[in-house]
Amino acid sequence: MSGLRLCQHPLALHRLAELRDRATPPARFRHLVRELSWLLAVDATRELALRPRTVRTPLGECPGGHLAESVVLVPVLRAGLGMVDGVLDLLPEAEVWHLGLHRDERTLRPIEYYALPNRPPPQLCLVLDPMLATGGSAAAAIAGLRGRAAPCIAFVGILGAPEGVRRLQQEAPDVPLHLVAVDERLNEYGFIVPGLGDAGDRQFGTL
Length: 207
Fold this sequence. Notes:
This protein has helices spanning 10-20, 26-44, 81-90, 136-146, 162-171, 199-204, and strands at residues 4-6, 50-57, 60-67, 71-77, 95-96, 99-103, 110-114, 124-128, 131-132, 152-156, 159-160, 177-179, 181-182, 185-186, 192-193. The chain is an alpha/beta fold. The chain has one domain (4-50, 65-204): Rossmann fold, CATH 3.40.50.
């Protein structure tokens, strides 16, 4: 699948298996989401530009680098909130823009209830949402960022469904998709199968 980048690191796959387990409690689930977000963000930021600098070590000088690009994190509420801290561990200076979307249970289409800031975003925008199911929320987030002239966008999630992956590849072929796995399909309610259930409910104990 073009543009799809799966994180197959053993540490990521180990955590995903525990995340899927229905016996994993909310506190542990949140911790796993945070750790997986950190691992995914390493790959999603691989192409950030560096500005050269000289570093003075205790024994002399050597060439080094300093990040030359700014980053904004766009968690899709509410499940995307659990991914923010893991990415901020790597990028503590990143801005965080919240986007509130909920899915109409009848049509499975996203409905916006909290909008992005109306100003130009930094160089790299990372859309954060653990589940890429129908792709509706991710597509809406990407469209909103494009409307604000975002120069570079990437989607960072944990699990995807073939339906959501195909939709983003068709509507936003230039946006890389960073996931740990793509599962079999969506069921009639728009949930990923076998998946891990509702990521928001499992994170915040609202099953």
